[in-house]
Amino acid sequence: MIPGDKLGDVDAYAAASRLPGLRPVTVRKWAQRGQLERCGTGPHGRALYPLADIYRLWDECCAQREVKWVVYLIQPNGRDGLIKIGTTSNLGRRLRALGASDDHVLLMLPGTYRQERMLHAVFDADRVGRSEWFRPSLALLEFIQFHRTAAA
User: Fold this and answer.
1) Which of 49, 65, 81 is where one domain is finished?
2) What are the phi and psi torsion angles at 47 (to 5°)?
3) What is the CB neighbour count within 10 angstroms for residue 86?
């Protein structure tokens, strides 16, 4: 839980940390336009907004821009066989940032941060610390194989 996150209310910075590509200024603009209702003040004096409303506005924004988000599972060299589960709207750029290539992609699924977080929760027992890196457990490898086979 992010500090200041009470009953689903977050400030613009906490919201931006949860949604890839969202900037705090966007949250403030939604509030200025009346699309987002302020519901209090956080411990740092920042305005709080309902997180569910921020998710809804972000989904609408992405749909209008036709951003195609994917959830990816990659296993780059030099990471002791660990698998990263992440989300991006530009896989090529993300792979370059991670020093990986197309050959390291184990699986790509259509989805957003919500599906990514769901996978993080499902495979939490295999997670390395609080990162997005996971040990290649039998359950995770079977999940990958199942979805690769289903896509073929």
Assistant:
1) 65
2) -65, 140
3) 19
121 shares a domain with 104: yes
DSSP-derived pairing of the beta strands 105-110 and 133-134: unpaired
**Domain encompassing residue 20:** 9-65
Burial (CB count within 10 angstroms: exposed 0-12, middle 13-18, buried 19+), residue 77: exposed
The number of distinct structural domains making up the chain is 2
- pLDDT at site 6: 40
Structure tokens at 138: 């039998």
CB neighbours of 19 closer than 8 A, spacing ≥ 6?
54, 55, 58, 113
Question: What's the pLDDT tens digit per position in 69-116?
Answer: 899 999 988 788 999 999 998 888 899 998 888 889 999 998 888 899
Q: What are phi and psi of 127, to 5 degrees?
A: -70, 145
**pLDDT category of residue 3 using cuts at 50, 70 and 90:** very low
The reply to whether 2 falls in a domain is no
Q: Is residue 1 part of a domain?
A: no
What's the predicted TM-score (pTM) here?
0.58
* CA distance from start to end of the chain: 38
